[in-house]
Design goal:
This protein is of the alpha+beta class and 120 residues long. The protein has a single domain, classed as Aldehyde oxidase/xanthine dehydrogenase, molybdopterin binding domain (Aldehyde Oxidoreductase, domain 4, 2-Layer Sandwich), CATH 3.30.365. It has three helices and four strands, in the order βαβββαα. Helix 1 crosses helix 2. The radius of gyration is 17 Å and the shape is globular.
Length: 120
């Protein structure tokens, strides 16, 4: 993924930089869940002993992110803490489905899962 964009309607945005940080953080977390995160087990125990072993999005994999807010200065302020997670995961899933011509319904959308879906 090279770039992510988000448009958010948060009503009156009092701190645009802080609000954008919240949206960006949610997008990065959703990317990680959608593309990588899965707890593997070995002999009934978690295989990952620490972050080094856990499949998670690394900073080097985070694309450029652009966030814009709908200007609504007369509307009440709305919470945006987790507003970007669901739409980000859905957008990635829809992009993969459009590219492959089939929908994968289990996360993460790992290389192994994509290959298995294509071979099925």
């Amino acid at each position: 993924m090279r770039r992510l964009w988000a448009a958010a309607d948060a009503g009156l945005v009092i701190n645009p930089d802080g609000a954008a940080n919240q949206i960006e953080g949610g997008m990065v977390q959703a990317m990680s869940w959608t593309l990588k995160e899965q707890l593997a087990y070995r002999d009934g125990r978690p295989a990952a002993a620490g972050w080094e072993d856990y499949p998670i999005l690394r900073f080097s994999e985070v694309p450029e992110i652009e966030v814009r807010f709908v200007e609504a200065p007369r509307e009440p302020t709305l919470g945006i803490g987790e507003a970007s997670q669901g739409p980000t995961a859905a957008a990635i899933g829809n992009a993969v489905a459009a590219a492959l011509g089939l929908r994968i319904r289990d996360l993460p959308l790992s290389n192994e899962r994509i290959v298995a879906a294509l071979l099925a």
